C-alpha cells in the first residue's frame, strides 16, 4: 500500500514579511504570487491535480482558521495573503462551480461573530481579491444536528449546514501553538464548524482535559478533502492568541489531516504523540500519525524545522497579589485563566501597579481544599466554571464570596471565554484604579 503523502514546500521570502512581523500587515501582488506558487507546488506534489478531488460543478468550501475577531497582525488568524493565494489557485485550476470561504470564530472579544471577524482579519477582502464566489458567515446560517458516529466524548454535534452541504472541503489552518491543545492545526480547526453556545455546549463543550478527544470526534463528522497549512508566519509562545510571530515561509499540504498535522507539528519541534488531538485521532486510526509511514515530499521535516517556543498554560504564581486558588482543576479553567493573564499583559497595563493600587485579586476554580475563606475579605474575586459547586470545598468558596468586595462568576464547563472576559474584567478594575481613587 502506498504511503500517505504530505508535501512541505518553501515559499520564496515575501517582501512584506518584515513589516508584517514588525506590526503592520502589508499586501503586495508579488508576495501573493510567491505564496500562490508554493500552494500550487504543495498541492500538486501531494495530490497531482485538483481534478482528483474537485469535479466539474462542485461547490468547494475553504474553511480557514478565523479563530478570533483579530487583525492579521495578531498572527492568530490565517494570513490574508494565503487566503487570497489559495482561493485564486483553486478558482484558476479547478472546474468548481463555486469556491466559497466560511468560518465561525471561537471567541472574538467575548463571543465572536463571523462578519466583523472576517472584516477585521482582512480575510474577507483577501477572499474577494482571490475571486471567492462568497464569504459565508457560518453563524448566520442554519445548523444541522448530527449524531457523531463512534464519538467518545462529543456525541451530539450541531454543525453549520454549509460545511455539510459543500461537495469538497478544504481545511486551511494556521501553524500555531495553543495553550490547551499544545498546537492548533488541521484537527483543531474543526472547532469552527460548530456554533458558540455559551456558557456550555458545542464550541465550549468538552473543551476541558478532553479537548484532544473532542477534536478527534469532530473529525469523524467529516474529513477534509485537502488540508493546506498556512505556515508562512506561524505563532510560537503563548498561543493561540498571545504568542509571537515566527517566520517559516512554508506551505504544508496533504489529504490526511492527521498526517498533515503530524508533519506540521514535527516541523514546529513537537512529537505528534505530544499533541492531544493528533494522538487521539491517530491512535483511533483516523489517519496516519507515524512519521515512518508518511511520505514527506518536497522538503524534509529536518531541513525546515524550527523549535517553536512552547506555550505555558500555568497561571499560578505569575503575579504577587493575583492568587489563583485552583488546587483541583482541569485545563478548561486552568489554561484559560493563564490565557486571560497573557491577554492582560498585552494590554500594556502594568499588572504589578494595578495590583498594588487595587489590592489582591483572587481567581478560584474547581476544588480548593486548602482554601481559607478569610482570604477573600474585601477583595475582588473571580469564580470560574461550574464544578466548584460539586467539590467538598463548596462551602469555603461560598463563605469567601460572602466576605468579598466583589464577586464575578463565569459559568460554563469549560468557560473558554474567560481568556477574553476575565481579561476584560481585570482591565475594567484597572481602569477604575487608574482614573479614580481605588474603591478600596
Ligand atoms: S468547570 Fe471544572 S471541569 Fe469544567 S473546565 Fe473548569 S475546572 Fe474543568
From TrEMBL:
Record InterPro entries: DUF362
The DUF362 domain extends over 60-265
The protein depicted here goes by the name FeS-binding protein
- Source organism per entry reads Acetobacterium bakii
Q: What is the lineage of its organism?
A: Bacteria, Bacillati, Bacillota, Clostridia, Eubacteriales
Amino acid at each position: 500500500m502506498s504511503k500517505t503523502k504530505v508535501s512541505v514546500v518553501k515559499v520564496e521570502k515575501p517582501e512584506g514579511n518584515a513589516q508584517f512581523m514588525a506590526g503592520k500587515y502589508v499586501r503586495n501582488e508579488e508576495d501573493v504570487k510567491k505564496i500562490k506558487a508554493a500552494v500550487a507546488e504543495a498541492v500538486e506534489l501531494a495530490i497531482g491535480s485538483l481534478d482528483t478531488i474537485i469535479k466539474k460543478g462542485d461547490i468547494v468550501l475553504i474553511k480557514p482558521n478565523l479563530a478570533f475577531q483579530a487583525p492579521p497582525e495578531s498572527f492568530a488568524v490565517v494570513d490574508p495573503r494565503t487566503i487570497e493565494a489559495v482561493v485564486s489557485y483553486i478558482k484558476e485550476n479547478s472546474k468548481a462551480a463555486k469556491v466559497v470561504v466560511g468560518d465561525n470564530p471561537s471567541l472574538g472579544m467575548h463571543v465572536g461573530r463571523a462578519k466583523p471577524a472576517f472584516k477585521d482579519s482582512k480575510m474577507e477582502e483577501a477572499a474577494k481579491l482571490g475571486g471567492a464566489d462568497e464569504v459565508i458567515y457560518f453563524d448566520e446560517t442554519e445548523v444541522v444536528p448530527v449524531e457523531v458516529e463512534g464519538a467518545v466524548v462529543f456525541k451530539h454535534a450541531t454543525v453549520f449546514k454549509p460545511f455539510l452541504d459543500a461537495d469538497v472541503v478544504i481545511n486551511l489552518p494556521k501553524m500555531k501553538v495553543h495553550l490547551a491543545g499544545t498546537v492548533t492545526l488541521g484537527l483543531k480547526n474543526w472547532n469552527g464548524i460548530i456554533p458558540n453556545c455559551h456558557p456550555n455546549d458545542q464550541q465550549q463543550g468538552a473543551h476541558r482535559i478532553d479537548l484532544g478527544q473532542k477534536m478527534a470526534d469532530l473529525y469523524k463528522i467529516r474529513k477534509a478533502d485537502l488540508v493546506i497549512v498556512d505556515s508562512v508566519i506561524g505563532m510560537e509562545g503563548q498561543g493561540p492568541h498571545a504568542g509571537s510571530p515566527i517566520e517559516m515561509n512554508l506551505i504544508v499540504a496533504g489529504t490526511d489531516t492527521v498526517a498533515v498535522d503530524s508533519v506540521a507539528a514535527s516541523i514546529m519541534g513537537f512529537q505528534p504523540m505530544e499533541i492531544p488531538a493528533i494522538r487521539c485521532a491517530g491512535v483511533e486510526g483516523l489517519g496516519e500519525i507515524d512519521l515512518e509511514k508518511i511520505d514527506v515530499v518536497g522538503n524534509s521535516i529536518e531541513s525546515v524545522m524550527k523549535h517553536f517556543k512552547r506555550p505555558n498554560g500555568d497561571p499560578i504564581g505569575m503575579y504577587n497579589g493575583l492568587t489563583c486558588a485552583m488546587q483541583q482543576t482541569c485545563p478548561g479553567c486552568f489554561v484559560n485563566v493563564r490565557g486571560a493573564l497573557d491577554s492582560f499583559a498585552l494590554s500594556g497595563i502594568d499588572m504589578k501597579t494595578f495590583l498594588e493600587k487595587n489590592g489582591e485579586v483572587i481567581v478560584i476554580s474547581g476544588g480548593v481544599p486548602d482554601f481559607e475563606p478569610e482570604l477573600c475579605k474585601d477583595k475582588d474575586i473571580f469564580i470560574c466554571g461550574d464544578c466548584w459547586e460539586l467539590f467538598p470545598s463548596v462551602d469555603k468558596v461560598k463563605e469567601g464570596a460572602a466576605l468579598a468586595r466583589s464577586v464575578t462568576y463565569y459559568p460554563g464547563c469549560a468557560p473558554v471565554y474567560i481568556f477574553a472576559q476575565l481579561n476584560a474584567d481585570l482591565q475594567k478594575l484597572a481602569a477604575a484604579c487608574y482614573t479614580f481613587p481605588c474603591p478600596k
